[in-house]
Amino acid sequence: MLKQIDVSSWFEANKEQKEQLLGQVYTPINIADIMVEIALLEKPKKILDPCFGKGVFIDALLKKGFPKKNIIGVEIDPFCYNEYKESNVSLELENINFFDFNKQVDCIIMNPPYVRQENLTMDMPDFLNKNYLNETLKRLKVELSARSNLYLYFFVKAWSILENNGSIIAIVPNTWAIADYGTKFKEFLLDNFLIEKFISFDKDVFPGADVESCILHLTKKDGNKKFPNHKVEFINISSGKNDTFETILTKKKVPYFNSYYQKDIKVKSNWITISKEKNEWDESSLVSLDSLTVINRGISTNGNSIFIDEASKFKNIFNQYFQPIVCSPKDIPGYSTKSRIKEDFILMTDAKKEELPKELLDYIDYQEIKLVNNKKPKTLYEKLQKKQETWYQIKRTQPSSIIFSYIIRENKKFIFNESRLIARDNFYEINVKEDVNPFLLFSILNSSITSYYLEEIGRTHGKGLLKIQKYELDKLRVINPVNITSEDKDKLITLAKRLINENESSSS
């Protein structure tokens, strides 16, 4: 049984943080204009915006002359609803949960909320409650991954109220097109829609957003009819202010455009890179990085000041309780941890309190008192509540052979861990499998071919930064060492050792 939560009271209590809780990120006007133009090409009779927010899509429709009487707006947020309704009293607007909306329409245009699955918890109202959302899926006989973001549930609900041959035009984050959790959603799209367009961008559409976005243009299939010759257009465009609908319609100034038969598109493939031009390398000579390595995120202390900064004063006295750690890519100017310009150490022990030297025990007890009083850092405080006697323990780990930054700031360099440092959680630790030569792999990873594929899988993170998720790095395409001749292997190993010994260098 779902916990009943009064929606109006919940919004009043959370009005200062509602945008974060609801995943409200408002669509730029130029992007809204493009999406509306796509929608109007379908000549719809009734258009629904299921989360109208500040009304950017509705305003664009009205500006294009679409009749007011043929527009419906739904918005769960009473603050957004009341503000927009006040100046648009003649529009059909409803302040309800979209999942309770059941009128049939033939076009839906939306920017659904971005809420991670771990935030769809039992103590939230139904529109942010995973149990409620999963009940909706069961009723509609649709299956999504348990890791699905809220915006994916919006597609299922939209499909359920859409007339056959009706359209959905939606802008959403593109992570589902890459990640494993998107497989079920891709199956849902391919089974129930004709995918007209998949539009990606060469930079962030939403300034400051953590993820890049894409536009999906979908047509609901009419029954069990087959469409063997239907082609999907994969388009990659600039998201600058001068973009127009004509850019997409005519393919003018579009960096990448490809079309594929929908029947040939695989759910396991990376849909984002389909839009990119064919590369010059033979795919059969490449393998995924996780076939050669085991990749882990670097260590997270949940309290760096406690375990690294303040604890460092004990390093020389009790060095057996400390290990060298690299905290930032900025601390390594070259391609080897030996070139690091800053030395840091982490308090890392699984010793019991009674086994610790008194001075170190006093330090831990002092930090424990601060945690109890401040209840911060939150994650470490919660660990203390569960494991009072062992909260300070960090299990000793073996350093990896190669490390790689979670966010790339300048050049895409893999770093050889020559000094055998533990890496903090803004790095990935790449453990090379026994049958792979680490110097050979290091050379491969710093090649122009690997750089090309990093650009394909990565996503811009604002200010020119490139962000790589673990699941993306796992599937990074690299040259298979098995296909390299003995002579070339020797050359690459020599190049790797030369690169390691240089302070700064271009890729091999």
Q: How does this model look, in words?
A:
The protein is α/β, with parallel strands linked by helices. It contains 16 helices and 21 strands. The chain has helices spanning 7-13, 18-22, 29-41, 56-63, 78-86, 130-140, 150-161, 183-192, 245-250, 304-309, 358-374, 378-386, 438-445, 448-457, 470-474, 486-501; strands at residues 47-49, 71-74, 92-94, 105-110, 162-173, 193-201, 213-220, 231-237, 256-261, 286-288, 293-297, 322-326, 344-347, 402-405, 407-408, 414-416, 422-423, 427-432, 459-460, 466-467, 477-479. The strands form 5 sheets. A 9-stranded mixed sheet has the order 3-2-1-4-5-7-6-8-9, sandwiched between helices. A 4-stranded antiparallel sheet has the order 11-18-14-16. A 3-stranded mixed sheet has the order 13-12-17. Helix 4 (56-63) links the parallel strand 1 (47-49) and strand 2 (71-74). Helix 3 packs across helix 4, helix 6 packs parallel to helix 7 and helix 13 crosses helix 16. The protein is globular and about 75 Å long. The model is unreliable at 504-508 (pLDDT under 50).
Features:
disordered C terminus, alpha/beta, globular, 16 helices, 508 residues, nine-stranded mixed beta sheet
